Amino acid sequence: MGLSGRVPHRVDAATKAGLLDLLDEAVDAGWPLRRACHELELGEVRAHRWLAQHTRAVVDDRVLDTANKVAAGGLLVAVGALLPAAAAVAAFFLVYLAIVLLVLTLLRLAL
Fold it and tell me: What are the tens digits of pLDDT across the range 1-33?
């Protein structure tokens, strides 16, 4: 990536993604996160914050993807693609959404 020395306070999205990929590879290879951060000269707290942000973005993308699949009629396949906790939240939301849509449809028919 052409970095030498500590990672600057501000980095572009491509650099952040590259560093996250390197961290993932290092951890997958058995390195402790602390050691990988040290080798990359990236603060450990910062790495944890980036990883948490990345994880939230992935879960958000999966929930949005699930909603799109449900709209297309693929509820079981879509919910199965989520993490267990996110699947439970998504299932609750989808049941709530179905009830709201049913009530709105009944109200429209009553008018």
Answer: 445 677 777 888 888 888 888 888 998 899 998
CA atoms within 13 A on the CB side of 95: 5
The per-residue DSSP string of 3-16 comes to --SSPPSS--HHHH
Sign of CA dihedral 9, 10, 11, 13: positive
Give the rounded distance of the alpha carbon of 1 from its chain centre: 24
Taking the whole predicted model, whether its pTM rises above 0.85 is answered as no
pLDDT of residue 89 exceeding 60 = yes
Give 76: exposed, middle or buried? Use CB within 10 Å, 0-12, 13-18, 19+.
exposed
The span from the CA of 96 to the CA of 14, in Å, is 38
